[in-house]
Specification:
The protein is an alpha/beta fold. 33% of the residues lie in helices and 18% in strands. The chain folds into two domains: 192 residues, 3-Layer(aba) Sandwich (Rossmann fold); 146 residues, Rossmann fold (3-Layer(aba) Sandwich), CATH 3.40.50.1980. The protein is globular, with a radius of gyration of 26 Å.
Length: 390
């Protein structure tokens, strides 16, 4: 301003140019993997290794790591944006964009049903793989009424019905790298496919923690976190109880199939459950997180004097065990009657709730095991998932 109280014309021009520069830069976004202006924080994940969630101003970014056995350095990214919001950030490369909350979904595993159910969102399920494997009574009724269709499996996916339904997302799982090829057609038609790898987690609570992953698709992360905290607390109650016993019974699992016994390694959630319940897993020296085939003779040498036998395939009694192989009667648990299978909750069509909601109710599996391995404090008729075979 000069001595007469006026702003020089050149100074006015400079200020206008500077303001225009600020305005242009405010409306321009430089490409980047994650736009720094929209990222907020990473959601706390205590046990799970297979996913990450990042909060953003408009929703979430969800990442899934190595979602099938022996996968390495593979990441799938999903950008979740709340409906009716304007996200001006740049797109993330190699990322599937999904509007949330989703209202129509297809589940290619009955385990996914358990996660969706605990969030109170079963009404969003429009298709399921293996309808006869479902336990949830409400889902069964919807299937019988024609409101939920059979989605099929992998190379036999019911593409026609999936495409006709136009789901917001298809929750899938992969057994191997070839599985991703079955979903390319859906993705090419604009149907997002989300890979879920909860079954690969090594800790029971890590599997449960995938509830947070499902929760962000329904924009219900807070509810998912609340349910998880409750489950975490209940699990540790039974874990502490299991560790109070000095006796550690040896526990064997599964049932042979086609001449081989598929044995899970010590780095699996089942081995962890047995340990936390105060038992000793018969294969605790098998340091892997996958199932491997072992011949019956080798299993007999290792497990013939085991104390308990649990998760015995689909057997409902001793006769069905013998029908698999007569030599199984030589195992001590068969002779002592310490045979327990996870078949207490099975639908009229054969759907087993252990495989459906067990992932989100590990505290109930653990409480069953504590009662089985240390029967002095409780009776087997109080079991939730397990029954004693006769």
């Amino acid at each position: 301003m000069n001595k007469n109280g006026f702003i020089p014309e050149g100074y006015v021009r400079y200020v206008l140019i500077f303001l225009l520069f600020l305005l242009v830069n405010a409306c321009t976004h430089t490409p980047s993997s994650y736009q720094s202006s929209t990222l907020t924080d990473t959601v706390s994940i205590r046990y799970a290794k297979g996913f990450r969630i990042i909060r953003t101003e408009y929703g979430f970014i969800a990442e899934v790591f190595n979602p099938w056995q022996q996968a390495q350095n593979i990441t799938f990214k999903y950008k979740l944006t709340r409906k009716n919001t304007f996200d001006s950030s740049s797109h993330i490369r190699n990322t599937i964009n999904i509007d949330i909350p989703v209202s129509k979904i297809v589940c290619l595993s009955s385990t996914h049903v358990g996660f969706v159910d605990v969030l109170g969102k079963t009404s969003t399920i429009k298709g399921i793989s293996g309808i006869n494997n479902v336990y949830n009574p409400a889902i069964i009724r919807s299937c019988e009424q024609g409101n939920i269709f059979e989605a099929g499996y992998e190379n036999n996916l019911n593409y026609e019905k999936i495409i006709k339904t136009k789901p917001d997302v298809v929750f899938a799982y992969g057994i191997g790298s070839e599985s991703s090829g079955y979903f390319v057609k859906l993705e090419e038609l604009g149907i997002p496919v989300v890979l879920v790898g909860e079954y690969l987690e090594q800790h029971p609570l890590a599997r449960t923690e995938w509830l947070k992953f499902f929760g962000v698709f329904f924009d219900q992360l807070e509810l998912a976190e609340k349910i998880f905290r409750q489950t975490d607390s209940l699990y540790h109650f039974w874990q502490k109880k299991g560790q109070t016993y000095t006796f550690r019974p040896v526990v064997m699992t599964a049932l042979p199939w086609n001449g081989n016994w598929y044995i899970s390694g010590a780095k699996t959630y089942m081995a962890q459950l047995i340990k936390d319940a105060g038992g000793k897993y018969a294969w605790d020296d098998l340091q892997n997180n996958i199932s491997i085939p072992i011949d019956i003779e080798t299993v007999f040498q290792r497990c013939r004097n085991a104390d308990y036998w649990i998760n015995i395939g689909q057997a409902t009694n001793k006769t069905e065990i013998l029908n698999t192989d007569r030599r199984l009667s030589l195992f001590r648990p068969f002779q002592t009657g310490n045979l327990y299978n996870n078949i207490a909750r099975v639908s009229h069509k054969g759907g087993n709730d252990y495989w459906e909601s067990g992932a989100i109710k590990p505290h109930l599996i653990l409480s069953d095991m504590v009662k089985i391995f240390h029967p002095g404090d409780s009776q087997s008729d109080s079991l939730y998932f397990f029954v004693k075979l006769k």
